[in-house]
UniProtKB/TrEMBL annotation:
Alphabetized UniProt keyword annotations: Cytoplasm, Histidine metabolism, Lyase
NCBIfam families found in the cross-reference section: hutH, PRK09367.1
EC number(s) from the headed UniProt entry: 4.3.1.3
Enzyme class, spelled out: lyase
Family indicated by similarity: Belongs to the PAL/histidase family.
Pfam families: Lyase_aromatic
GO BP annotation list: L-histidine catabolic process to glutamate and formamide; L-histidine catabolic process to glutamate and formate
Substrates-to-products reaction catalysed: L-histidine = trans-urocanate + NH4(+)
Gene Ontology cellular component list: cytoplasm
GN (gene name): hutH
Name of the protein in question: Histidine ammonia-lyase
Source species of the chain: Biomaibacter acetigenes
Amino acid sequence: MVIINGENLTIEDVARIAVKGEAVGLSPGSIERINRSREYVEGIIKKGEIVYGVTTGFGKFCNVIISSEDTRKLQINLIRSHSVGVGEYFPEEIVRAMMLLRINALAKGYSGIRLSTIETLIDMLNKGVTPLVPCQGSLGASGDLVPLAHIALVMMGEGEAVFNSKILPGKIALELAGIKPVVLEAKEGLALINGTQAMSAVGSLALAGAQNLSKVADISGVLSFEALNGIIDAFDEKVQAIRPHPGQNSCARNFMILLEGSRLITRQGQLKVQDAYALRCMPQVHGAIKDAIKHIRKVLEIEINSATDNPLIFSNEEKVISGGNFHGEPVAINMDYLSIAVSELANISERRIERLVNPYLNEGLPPFLIENGGLNSGLMISQYTAAAIVSENKTLSAPASVDSIPSSANQEDHVSMGTIAARKAMKVVENTVNVLAIELLCAAQAMDFRIQKTGLDKALGKGTLAAYEAVREKVPTIVADRPLSDDVRILAGLIKSGELVRRVEKVVGTLE
């Protein structure tokens, strides 16, 4: 069980809980803060004080005073009116990540919500009641109001949810899981939906995927490099030391470790003077992406451990402050950054694929990596697929965060579009998995010919050999044309599961 306290959730925690289903619970300190915050809110209600979202309407209705007898109805109406999402549903693991991140934000004790309401959300997460949440509708500025409202709707016993792999009415799903629906009290509806948890959930899982792809690209890249008799001098630590970007140096170290013992790599001037940029500049390109991922991780881990509600309840100081922590700009900009960074992994990978299959560039390997070329097309069209995906990634990398459309009668006059940015970043990550799978397919095929040509059955580096064997355990050598979609799908699974990286790191140690 992961104990939630609002302070130290990591990207790995989010992935483990959302994807693998690890249970969560609240820390004693969080319980104390939650109760203290709620007591203060109830005191405000008794005194009849005017506080946004507690005794007033929302957005442009912030100046409409709500009577004490209508505060409960106000919260219910809020959730119902804001449940207006459209489009495909988010995958279950993303919704689970949203639930987790909302629990973590509420655990900080600045939202004025009852402990029992948070415990309902925890029970839903732990027992596998996953609301159906449409992926479109958030502007990413008053928080992710629309997607989070669909979660709160199920908490109330409305909407729809997945339970035991079946789509059910929310009330039935809760009943089957032994969970009582929540009757929202003052401030609670707002506390459940005002925050950046949808964009942060998508962003956290996209980032977890990108971290894995950063290592996969190093592995697939050096396998291609080795199959193309790459010049190892470019990875010399002296070259990296005089341009000391951390990611660049990490990549060069990874490459040297992966290639240790290789008899296929060459030295400067041995067969050629220089390699093309897609090979020679891998430390610089992959390294810049590692640095980007590191920066994005720092921003996201601040965000997922922040209070993003409005208004915020400072019970110790007896203050309620309306601010802007719900605005998704920090996440939005960094999700656009992630799209750009991961797109570049695919971009340079496709250039290596082209070099592998092109007989004018592949250092003596057969055209399109197949015997009886002409009768067989081999891996010719795999490069087409990679190119199509790379082109799609470029369109997805156009920034969402530079756009803004005012809402709520211009009360909310600048918005982040952060959830759109996060969804695009996730799609770029998914696309890049397939490009790297195609590179692995081509690089392993090229290696088959290189081994055959040299007669060196132990020619590979220790890390590249582990990668090559992992590929060959999943897909056989292509000896004549066959449909390759299944091969790519299988290798994409090898990548996404983390198995490829685990297999290689078991041999060479942890890659940076």
